[in-house]
Design a protein that fits this description.
The protein has 3 helices and 5 strands, in the order βαααββββ. α1 crosses α3.
Length: about 110
């Protein structure tokens, strides 16, 4: 059975979150949580909170044992971008985007 946790429109660039997500993709659940504790990147706190949410979904809603859970999939994709402008010389502007991301974690319970 799959347990899904999704966090949408997080105000952090998807590239920064993918760096952390790639480092924990093939690890066990306990090992991934300990790596997220030790990682000093901003995306690690977001992923750790979402992992705890997914584990709570599995234990409370699906009535699964925490020890039987494994990471099946972690997806990070682009969310909406806020478009802003930076003033420049001679009345010009330089556009930039404040990017956001969507994160989806799928846990699988071994029967």
């Amino acid at each position: 059975m799959e347990i899904i946790a999704i966090n949408r429109a997080i105000r952090i660039s998807p590239r920064k979150v993918r760096l952390v997500a790639d480092s924990i993709r093939n690890l066990s659940l306990e090992k991934a949580l300990s790596v997220l504790d030790m990682t000093q990147k901003r995306g690690s706190s977001v992923l750790k909170a979402l992992f705890k949410n997914a584990i709570a979904n599995a234990v409370n809603n699906a009535k699964k044992n925490r020890d039987s859970l494994t990471i099946k999939k972690i997806e990070v994709w682009d969310g909406p971008a806020i478009k802003r402008f930076h003033p420049s010389t001679r009345g010009r502007v330089h556009p930039y985007k404040k990017r956001s991301s969507h994160i989806k974690i799928v846990l699988e319970a071994k029967e």
